[in-house]
Amino acid sequence: MKTITPTNILRVFRGAERYLSTTSSVFAAKRVLNIENMNPNVKTMEFAVRGPIVIRGGQLAKDLEKGAKKPFTSIVKANIGDAHDMGQKPITFIRQVVACTAYPELMKSSEIPEDVKEHAKLILHDCGGHSVGSYGPSPGIECIRKHCADYISQRDGIPANSDDIYITAGATEGIRNILKLFVNEKARKPVGVMIPIPQYPLYSATLDEFGLGQVRYYLDEDKNWALNTEELERAYHESKNKYDTKVICVINPGNPAGQVLTRQNIEEVIRFAHKHDLFIMADEVYQNNIYAKNSKFFSFRKVMKELGGEYAEQELASFYSVSKGYMGECGLRSGYTEILNMDPEVVAMFNKMISSKLCSSILGQAALDAAVYPPKQGGASYDLWFKEMTKILNSLKERAKLVQEAYGSLEGIECSEIQGALYAYPRLHLPHKAFAAAKSKGVQPDFFYAMEMLEATGICTVPGSGFGQKEGTQHFRTTILPQTDLMKEMLDRFKPFHSEFMKKYK
Amino acid sequence: MKTITPTNILRVFRGAERYLSTTSSVFAAKRVLNIENMNPNVKTMEFAVRGPIVIRGGQLAKDLEKGAKKPFTSIVKANIGDAHDMGQKPITFIRQVVACTAYPELMKSSEIPEDVKEHAKLILHDCGGHSVGSYGPSPGIECIRKHCADYISQRDGIPANSDDIYITAGATEGIRNILKLFVNEKARKPVGVMIPIPQYPLYSATLDEFGLGQVRYYLDEDKNWALNTEELERAYHESKNKYDTKVICVINPGNPAGQVLTRQNIEEVIRFAHKHDLFIMADEVYQNNIYAKNSKFFSFRKVMKELGGEYAEQELASFYSVSKGYMGECGLRSGYTEILNMDPEVVAMFNKMISSKLCSSILGQAALDAAVYPPKQGGASYDLWFKEMTKILNSLKERAKLVQEAYGSLEGIECSEIQGALYAYPRLHLPHKAFAAAKSKGVQPDFFYAMEMLEATGICTVPGSGFGQKEGTQHFRTTILPQTDLMKEMLDRFKPFHSEFMKKYK
């Protein structure tokens, strides 16, 4: 009765359960905690990246393992930015540093390069009892915070301060920590948070969970998903009666759309935030993932400081993660938040709040250290590190082009330039009968398309409805992470599916 | 202006700031986010384990490093259950498993025992792309959940189901996840959660942060901190007008008081919870830390199932952590929650909620696996593992006795038997002038005592006021974690301080 089956889980997603037979949920005894009295915000929230299509993908993978016959032999998990899962090899330097801090006996081995050992020693020196098994300070290990600050200083050419750095279990925890500060059930009006549409659903899910308001501004697909000030003004003003808007979130490079904001665009956002007294949350986890020839990454911090004056004094939180970039170390759960210009009284409360969660994984922090403080030229690890890093970044660039060209060449699909990040977010022009078919199943048209794609090809993507999109438009997000061979195979599976789908529902 | 100094942080603790000169916090510009409009729950919450005494301890340690002259040459961090920081050595097997999963090249080495390699292979087999860098499933890696269930089955002699296991970043995250489900700002009355007094302040801090009500039941110090039903009834009934009480938390073995509940006591709690329809949260992270000859650990799960009938059907969440036991791997951040009898619709929502946080550290999960699925007899690692484990547990037992006897022999201190866990919670009978001195500084008497102790001896403890205590009583919590030599030194520093304090304020 109480078994948690995928079917059970599926039932929570609106509409989606019609794809699977539902189990009856007749209960003898009423539970203390039940669907009526539980946290209503948890009920409301949705997180499409791990939604019903992914769950169905997991089922199919298990069926295949058991020898079920399908039109495909494997599931391609193009739904989530998980590089290693799609065959990317870890960076040797990062893993050696982590292994040495975990098991310091390794430092006696001649197989481990000297610069790795020095690196590991530096970290262990700042660990209680020289062990990664000790709790660290809640904001992170001191030397690692310093290396994060050094990395930022070098990136921007403007000195950073390690006191502003907070190491977290991935950017996810950092984003949740900052949003948590704005929760105020006692406020006259709910606090509003501006988020881009399309957006990474962590934002919408966390806002729902925390009872904060979503103030949605639309990115301009016709201008390669650029951000425009009139649209920001529209969103801000239209929500004024409903919300007391205090925050603007920007994802740059963009997830899911892969755009890279121009410096001009960033300046506009900063001026807009200044005008309306908004706290800026800059999700910059893809800062190392830039592919387009004419694109360059500018941090909000750099642009703000260079604008100077009051602009330089604005409240900003910026997020970084070892899960993205060339590292792809999602499973190690580490990242940092840099907090600038926050009221010191709030900072004190923030420190108190994070202290009750003790600290983030020290081994994750070691990986973060290896990412922001990589081998120096001339060091024993440098050549291999450089080779591995450039190989990954070049291959991502190649795959970004491959995906864009492949989708761009198909009838009924438009694909913007993938300037950065790890995703394509192609637009679908679906035939009329597909809308009707989706409606009859009670799902969104692009959900219908993505589920049909999965069932026909084994390719797992996320429908645009999970990220948000202009009404009447249809999209899906796919990562560019399958390794080149698998990517080619994926596209070979995709093309016939797409043309058959278009034909079938014409 | 915006530097985060310890002084700044200290200001957030009521009364405590008088110990240090405060910085003026005059601000030119009003911030978007400020102390008036920020999350009021974050303002309210306190977390004494990392409170002002610990922060002052950190300052003193830095002063010592810089060559400052003090009546002591080191800080003894007896404030937090952090074994490795106090000199405990990691278990070789755990660290080898973690290192091999992080850097699989190691598995080619003849220095790594075969059973470690098999273990690491098993884990990597269940990782996406066979890499710990991939996101895991949100509830945890499949084989590790299975090993947790096997551990529980063996512990209780009653089969467990891996579907009920959720791996988390330490027990802290698990406890927060469960409490989160009960938050309901829209409910007629706030939801109340019964917590023991004294308690581990994660509970009070999280309840405050989440806006849940603290329903405090007092443990009976005269009966070695036993739990009694009349007191549970009193607490429940007295809070009835204020709260809709839905949860009872029990910490067994106890933190901070070190008691181990009898089976009889556990049965009483289960019957009480059944009578009043309460969800049981059993914090059992110290289940491997039992020292008293007449004490034995019984899990709530086992007692509930053995009581049978409707008792066996009660909703229960139990917590386990690699931070405690003989492992002491706090920094690796891993633990599990076993959830029993939860409404499947709520389970589905729970799965959705945790999915937005993606997964807990995979390397932490590997450590958890090595803890719940240790080497088998006959395996290459078994002898060393067994030797290391028993050495640690025997030494903890010895230190529990040492601490209890030392405190018990002093005038003005009473110390209950340390039956389990990692702490002593001695009661102070302070002289009258000490109360006056504390009052003049605006702090609690035991805060005053603990701060004086720190300044005189370098021993960092947590005053009873941080855990809660019967009005008019005074305590402090110290861990039994300093290694035996350091522990003896600590007691040698403590005794003269205490007798001088008693003399001075007589």
UniProtKB/TrEMBL annotation, chains A, B:
Domain Aminotransferase class I/classII large: 112-493
Subunit structure as annotated in this protein's UniProt entry: Homodimer.
Molecular function, one GO term: L-alanine:2-oxoglutarate aminotransferase activity
Similarity section: Belongs to the class-I pyridoxal-phosphate-dependent aminotransferase family. Alanine aminotransferase subfamily.
InterPro entries associated with the record: ALAT1/2-like (IPR045088), Aminotransferase_I/II_large (IPR004839), PyrdxlP-dep_Trfase (IPR015424), PyrdxlP-dep_Trfase_major (IPR015421), PyrdxlP-dep_Trfase_small (IPR015422)
Cofactor(s) in the UniProt record: pyridoxal 5'-phosphate
Signal peptide residue numbers: none
Top EC category: transferase
SUPFAM superfamilies listed in its UniProt record: PLP-dependent transferases (SSF53383)
Protein keywords: Aminotransferase, Pyridoxal phosphate, Transferase
This protein's pathway: Amino-acid degradation; L-alanine degradation via transaminase pathway; pyruvate from L-alanine: step 1/1
EC number: 2.6.1.2
Gene3D superfamilies: 1.10.287.1970, Aspartate Aminotransferase, domain 1, Type I PLP-dependent aspartate aminotransferase-like (Major domain)
Catalytic activity: L-alanine + 2-oxoglutarate = pyruvate + L-glutamate
Name this protein carries in UniProt: alanine transaminase
